Amino acid sequence: MRHFDFLGKAKYFIPVSILLIAISAIFVIPQVRGLKMGIDFTGGTQFTVKFTEPVDTAAIRKMLGEIDSGGIDLTKSVIQDVTGKNTKVITTQLLNVERDQRVIDRIESTLRSEFPVEDISRRLIGQQVSRELAEKGWQAILLALVAILVYVSWRFRLRYAVGAVAALIHDVTIALGIFAIFGIEINLATIAAFLTIIGYSLNDTIVIFDRIRENLKVERKKNIFDIINLSVNQSLSRTLNTSITTFIPVIILFLFGGSVLRGFSLALLIGVIVGTYSSMYIANPILYAWAKKAGRTKRG
């Protein structure tokens, strides 16, 4: 097995990560560019359409794309099935009933003419409800980070938990920065992808931490620097195999999943790459720096 000096090379990668985090934070600020929130968080007009027979979602989306909506991309509307019924819920970005009334009427008339519609009802989703939904989404991410900090502190030690959470914040911040820089919409599916990023990145980090803890018991005469490097190298094959097998379906989803799943798959794609990187070059250097500061560079 080849031995790579991961910890020694961290001094070159950490400044790059700090720069990426700084750039991401700047673009996430609303005054600079900010995040582009999707329908789930901005509100819109919701149509509940009951059909007399099953209707393909792709056909509805194609129909929406053919409607002249005055610059609003109706193909990005959220279309959901109601389980057990021939009913679909279509949420569009049409916020102003007076301004968008022509488009709303056109959607209803086109649905009735092209599909076997039994009934259509609509309601306006206010921005207040959407803001509350957005707050709950970010609260879910924050709660996940706090829960991870507590669990890893209990399962390992506080120094391990701080390294793991720092790596997770690193991953999510860079992902948010990319979304802000390229103006990619964030919706509920994207929030789910960010939570998945947290779980994926943490999994890699915990595997390495567990190996470090085992080696601390076995290699008592080695210093912590060598033990961390040894542990990362021992886990390298498993980490790369997991990353590659996860990367393949995610890249296929990104390329062929369509515009609806583009944000979700992109977030996962970023998470696989950045999560693998941070488990090696962010979490471990923080653990080493803490141990060195505590004066415990040697065991036994």
Name its key features.
elongated; Alpha-Beta Plaits; alpha+beta; 300 residues; two-stranded parallel sheet; Multidrug efflux transporter AcrB transmembrane fold; 4-stranded antiparallel beta sheet
How are the elements arranged and paired?
Blueprint: H1 6-28, E1 36-37, H2 39-42, E2 44-51, H3 57-65, E3 78-82, E4 87-92, H4 101-114, E5 117-125, H5 127-155, H6 158-181, E6 185-186, H7 188-218, H8 224-256, H9 262-281, H10 283-293
Parallel strand pairs: 1-6
Antiparallel strand pairs: 2-4, 2-5, 3-4
What is the CATH third-level topology name of the largest domain?
Multidrug efflux transporter AcrB transmembrane fold
Rounded Rg: 24 Å
| Helical content (DSSP H or I, runs of 4+) | 55-70%
Number of helices: 10
Work out the number of β strands. 6
- Count of structural domains: 2
Largest sheet composition: 4 strands, antiparallel
Uncertain segments of ≥5 residues (pLDDT<50)? none
Strand order of the largest sheet: 3-4-2-5
Report mean pLDDT, rounded to a whole number. Answer: 83
Q: Which strand-content bin applies to the residues?
A: 5-15%
Distance between the termini: 26 Å
Give the overall shape. Answer: elongated
Architecture of the largest domain in CATH? Up-down Bundle
Structural class: alpha+beta
CATH class of the largest domain: Mainly Alpha
CATH superfamily of the largest domain: Multidrug efflux transporter AcrB transmembrane domain
**N-to-C order of helices and strands:** HEHEHEEHEHHEHHHH
